[in-house]
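Support request, please re-run this one:
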Amino acid sequence: MNHEVLAIRHVHFEDLGSLELVLGERSRPVRYLDVGFARIEAPDPAAPSLMVILGGPISASDDARYPTITPLLSMIEKRIAAGLPTLGICLGAQLIARALGARVYRAPQTELGWTPLTLTDAGRASPPAKTRHSVGANMCWACNVTRKSGPTVLSRG
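Re-run finished. Output below.
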């Protein structure tokens, strides 16, 4: 395993944002894997030190329209089985939940707006919380929900 961070990006403008600065300060080079409608050549999921699956305007359960979902789920499953650090943001969190067996489905109404982002007890004890960067607001634009117990929830918002 190397120190590289693999960021799975569904749309070009949804990148790591300020997280990329934090990773850079810690000498963690970032490589983006841009995915969209076309099938992808999935890299070795065990190679990067961290895999971050970013958000995007698609549903984590829309395999028929987005052929990238199946190979991404396979990559996520392999990383989780190997106990490797994997972070999902928005759509990425839904994909991780799905890889763990959760049902992802359309919410009764879309959530849109800024909400406070708060850390859970597990989140406050996690390595990301030990950085000098603060937790603030979260822009929420979601129309899917998941139901499954098991993964550690680090934040709510």
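Residues 126 and 154 are 8 Å apart (CA to CA). The chain has a mean pLDDT of 81.
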